[in-house]
Specification:
The longest helix is centred in the first third of the chain and has 15 residues. The chain is α/β, with parallel strands linked by helices. It contains 13 helices and 8 strands. The protein is globular. The chain is 43% helix and 16% strand. The chain has a single domain, classed as Alpha/Beta hydrolase fold, catalytic domain (Rossmann fold).
Length: 279
């Protein structure tokens, strides 16, 4: 079954791989970013499910999932996923989260630790300077939050990427945002960057929250993103106390680095998973 009713919303998800019958490999939960959907992981699902069980949901209000009740804050999205994992008998899982999905993954690790074996934070939507968040939240208090989102996320594309594949990715990302409900888009970004969200996304408060992740954490970031935040790859490594935690920084990529360089990204994550300590 690819739909499950969670907290009043109908969540789409796929569940495949050799571990889907309860045997073999890790169980991976792939969590997409804000205004995106689980199709983002199309280049990962096949590679990961060859060895592991892979669960790929659309978060409430995104993709094929409904968003008729509840909010769009990371804690609310994490609660949906915790209920989903309980409902389908999955866990503990390795949560692979991109952008906002990395915030949701971290909330799961902190507040539902029995469900999380490890976290892979890809271009995480946290670690911003205190001045940045209220400015971005204010930018979405406009009649056209969809247009604002298209402009903000369009600015995160890799300007050096050229050719038909890079152009197709840009068009796909933009058209997907344009198809979303405007109030959902507004709530997604307010849920990340308004004053109430600061402890989960903004320095210095987020540092104490992330340090509560007791599981192994692999962070994978674009060098340009870290520079824009005013941090480096060691910042998150210091916040992840587990000895198997690691940090990787990729040069010459944009926000969707796992789509730009899928083979490199997949090998990085699968190699790290192989070294995870025995549960």
């Amino acid at each position: 079954m690819t739909y499950t009713v969670i907290n009043g919303n109908r969540l789409f998800h796929t569940d495949e791989g050799p571990g889907a019958d309860g045997t073999g490999g890790e169980t991976l939960l792939l969590v997409h970013g804000g205004t995106c959907d689980s199709h983002d992981w199309s280049a990962q699902i096949g590679a990961f499910s060859a060895r592991h069980r892979v669960i790929a949901p659309d978060l409430r209000g995104h993709g094929r999932s409904t968003g008729l009740s509840g909010g769009m804050r990371p804690r609310e999205l994490a609660a949906d996923l915790a209920e989903l994992l309980d409902g389908i008998g999955a866990g503990p899982v390795v949560v692979v989260g991109h952008s906002m999905g990395a915030v949701v993954a971290s909330v799961l690790a902190v507040e539902y630790p029995s469900l999380v074996r490890a976290v892979v934070a890809v271009e995480p939507g946290y670690g911003f300077e205190a001045e940045f968040a209220p400015q971005l939240a204010a930018a979405f208090r406009v009649p056209d939050p969809v247009g604002t989102a298209a402009a903000v996320l369009g600015g995160l594309e890799n300007p050096a990427a050229t050719g038909p594949e890079a152009d197709a990715l840009r068009v796909w990302h933009r058209r997907r945002i344009l198809a979303m409900d405007p109030m959902t888009v507004r709530d997604v970004f307010h849920g990340l960057f308004d004053e109430a969200a600061a402890p989960l996304t903004v320095r210095p408060g987020v540092e104490s929250y992330l340090a509560r992740r007791s599981c192994p954490v692999l962070s994978v970031s674009a060098a340009a993103s870290l520079k824009a935040k005013g941090i480096d790859g060691d910042w998150e490594a210091v916040l992840s106390p587990h000895p198997h935690s690691a940090s990787a920084v990729l040069e010459g990529v944009g926000h969707w680095l796992f789509q730009e360089r899928p083979a490199e990204f997949n090998a990085l994550v699968l190699g790290w998973l192989e070294g995870l300590p025995t549960a």
